[in-house]
Design brief:
Blueprint (H helix, E strand, L loop, with lengths): L2 H12 L3 H6 L9 H20 L3 H19 L4 H50 L6 H42 L3 H21 L8 H24 L3 H18 L5 H16 L3 H24 L16 H50 L10 H25 L7
Helix pairs in contact: 1-4, 3-4, 3-5, 4-5, 5-7, 5-8, 7-8, 8-9, 8-10, 9-10, 10-11, 11-12
Amino acid sequence: MAATDLENQTQAQSGESPETKEASPSKTATQTPEERKAAALMALVTGKRHMLVQDIPAAVSSLGEACELLSAEFGETAPECAEAYFYYGKALLEMARLEAGVLGNGLDGDGESEKSEEPEDDDEDEEESPESGEGEAAEPEAEKGAEGAEKTETDSVEGDKKEGEDAAAQEAEDEDDPSNLQLAWEMLELAKMVFTEQLEGSQKASLTDELKATVEKKLCETFLTLGEVSLENENYVQAVEDLNLCLDRQKASLPSDSRNIAETLYQLGVALGFHMKYEEAVASLEAAIAVLDSRIKNLKEKTESPDEAKKNDAFYTREKEIAEIESLIPEIKEKITDTNEMKDESIKKVAELKEQIGFGSSSSSSGAGSSTSTAKPIATISFKRKKEEDNTSDNKKVKNSENGEPSSS
C-alpha cells in the first residue's frame, strides 16, 4: 500500500476531500525531518490515547495521519511504521463494529417509527375527507385533479429515474471504497509483514533480547486481531488459522500462566464453534479455563509470572486480579454451554435432513412396489427397477390369459 493510499484513506475516514487538502499549502513541505518525525509520533500517541478512552473516530483519524507521515518519512515497510499500522488496523476494526451496531439499532428502530406514524396518517385522512353535499362543486375540481395527477405522475417517473441514477452512482462509489474491515485487514497484514521481517529477516541478529520480546508480543497481538477481523467477516477458516499461529508463538515465548494465552484460547474456541468444530471448540475453551485456574493458584502462592499490562497500574493488587479472573471463568463456562447447545442443534438438524432424504427414498421405492425404507445405492435401484418391470410384465401376461386373450408368446 503506497503512502498516497494511506493519505486517501485518512481523508476518507475524517471526511476531508483530497481536493481541499491539495488546495491548501502542505505544512510538511516546510518541516525538517526531525519535525516530521515528531509530528508523526505525536499523531501516534494521540491516536493511542483516543483508543484508550474509546473515542474511535478520533483514533482512526489520528492513527491514519501517523501512518501517512511515518510511511512518507521512513518508507512503507520500515520498522518504524509497524506499530502505527497495528493500531490503525485495530481502530478500523473497532470502527467497523461501531458501524455494525449503529446499523443494527437503526434497523430495529424503523419498525417502531412506522408504527408510530400510522395513527397520524389515519387522522389526516379523517380531517381531509370531503363532507356530503359538495358533489356538484367537486366536478370541476375533479377534472383539474386529473390533470394534476397526470403531471404529478410524470414528475414522479422523472424523479424515480433520477433517484435510480443517483443510487447506482452511490453504489459504484461504495464498491470503489473499501470497507473499514477490509482496510483493517490490509493494515494488520502490513504490520504482520513488518514485524515478521524484524524477527526473521536479515537484521534479526541486531535485535536485543528486550526488543525481540517486544516485537514478538506485537506480532502475536497482530495475529490475534487478524483473527478477530476474520471472525467479523465470518471467514472462520482464516480466523482459526491466524489464532492457531498466534497461540503457537505465545506458547513458545510466554509463561504457561499468561492471560494472553487464555485470551487466545478463548477466541480460538469461539472461532472453532462458528466453524462447526464443536469438540475442538470446547477443548480450547476448557484449556482457557485451565490457564486461568493456574494463574489464580500462582497468584495465591505469589509465584505468578509478571503481567506487562499491569506493570504501570498504580492500583494493582493480587487480590484484585484474582477477583477479576474469577469473574471471567463463569463467562467461559457459559460459552461452553452455548457451544454444546450449538452442537446438539446441529446434530438435530442433520438427523432431520437424513430423515427427509430417507423418507423421500422410501416413498419412491414404495411407489415401485418396494417395502424397503432405507435409501439404496444407484446401481441397486436400477437393477431392482429392471427386475420389477419383468415381474410386472409377467403379471400382465397371467391377467390376459385369465381373461381369455391370447398371449403374444
